[in-house]
Structure formats: C-alpha cells, structure tokens
Design brief:
68 residues; mainly alpha; two-stranded antiparallel sheet; elongated
Length: 68
C-alpha cells in the first residue's frame, strides 16, 4: 500500500471518530472502571490506563485482520 492510501485511510478514520465524538458515541472513552482520576483542590491527575488497553487490543486485532 502506498503512503497516500495510508494517509487517506487515516484521515477517514479521524473524521469518523470526530463525528462519533460529536454525537456522543464515545462517552465511555476515558470513563472506564480502572481509569485513574484524581482531582485535588489545585491539581488534576488523569491516567486512562484501561481505556488505552482496550484501544490497544482493538487496534491490534484490526491490524492483524487486515494484514492477512
């Protein structure tokens, strides 16, 4: 696959993700059990570890599916 095709595919995925976010289909993103949130009086700390693990597994499955 050429670089142009990868750029077009990435752009389409980003547009679809933006549309899904705008219409509230990604409300779960960053709010899964296991994501670490701390809000102090003067500071905030956020570490979405479970969300990133889920995204990593999904992307790994998709890439292995399209690689075949």
């Amino acid at each position: 696959m050429s670089v142009g095709n990868w750029l077009i595919g990435t752009g389409v995925l980003l547009v679809l993700a933006g549309i899904a976010y705008k219409f509230g289909l990604l409300n779960w993103f960053g709010n899964l059990p296991g994501d670490i949130k701390y809000e102090g009086e003067n500071s905030k700390f956020y570490f979405p570890i479970v969300t990133m693990l889920v995204i990593s597994v999904i992307l790994s499955l998709l890439l292995s599916f399209f690689k075949r």
